[in-house]
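> forwarded from #structure-qc
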């Protein structure tokens, strides 16, 4: 059921400030003014209504992400074996960065970004495939198997996470607010497998596991250094580690080939 009143935008950001970097350089960090709606404001004074406006001021994340993506594009241009594969890599990096930002900020991997990204990945790899060490085009079946491998392994982890959540819920006597391993991570692993193929996906999964463990240790250490108590079973976003393993194998596949 839709709410009786919805948030509404009362002031929009000028087009010159749509890019985060441009907004910072031009001093236009103030975002659109969003009101919560008549039902939420009923019975409130004008001053109270003013304070109900949502803060949409641009944070440092916006220009930093844009600068980081530009740097990745430059590195991709220098690292890619061909212009076509460079374009493919750039598209993949933009998609993965979008998914990572959403996951870090909201702990969500959205199907609305995964589904079209899967189609884009398969189409681009079919049109501009990677070149095998034998000098042949990598068949699309390699990428399809990569998606099946990533999805299969992470689906097992998803099932294990469900069992773990049930055990912890039983021990605590209440339902956990978040699952240990979400199905969005399974969908992300499928996407990453479609991007890099099954051979690279094997190494990407190893990188993901070890990077995830290192990230959890660093998180616990930072809590201790700041003298904050670490809560057991605190959910941490796992998607960025899947992305990290994928990006490493995407950009440095040749280096891994030379090692093995």
């Amino acid at each position: 059921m839709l709410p009786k009143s919805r948030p509404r935008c009362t002031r929009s950001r000028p087009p010159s400030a749509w890019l985060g970097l441009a907004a910072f350089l031009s001093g236009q960090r103030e975002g659109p003014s969003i009101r919560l709606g008549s039902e939420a404001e009923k019975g409130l004074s004008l001053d109270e209504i003013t304070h109900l406006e949502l803060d949409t001021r641009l944070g440092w994340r916006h220009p930093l992400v844009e600068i980081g993506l530009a740097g990745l594009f430059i590195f991709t241009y220098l690292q890619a074996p061909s212009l076509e594969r460079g374009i493919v890599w750039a598209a993949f990096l933009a998609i993965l960065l979008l998914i990572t930002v959403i996951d870090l900020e909201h702990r969500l991997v959205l199907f609305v970004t995964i589904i079209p990204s899967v189609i884009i990945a398969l189409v681009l790899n079919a049109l501009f495939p990677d070149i095998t060490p034998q000098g042949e085009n990598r068949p699309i079946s390699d990428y399809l198997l990569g998606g099946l491998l990533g999805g299969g392994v992470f689906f097992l982890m998803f099932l294990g996470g469900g069992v773990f959540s049930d055990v912890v819920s039983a021990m605590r006597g209440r339902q956990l607010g978040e699952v240990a391993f979400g199905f969005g991570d399974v969908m992300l692993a499928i996407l990453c497998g479609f991007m890099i193929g099954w051979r690279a996906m094997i190494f990407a999964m190893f990188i993901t596991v070890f990077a995830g463990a290192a990230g959890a240790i660093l998180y616990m250490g930072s809590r201790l250094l700041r003298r904050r108590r670490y809560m057991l079973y605190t959910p941490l976003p796992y998607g960025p580690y899947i992305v990290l393993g994928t990006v490493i194998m995407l950009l440095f596949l040749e280096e891994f080939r030379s090692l093995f």
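QC bot note: The first helix runs from residue 20 to 25. DSSP finds ten helices and two strands in the chain.
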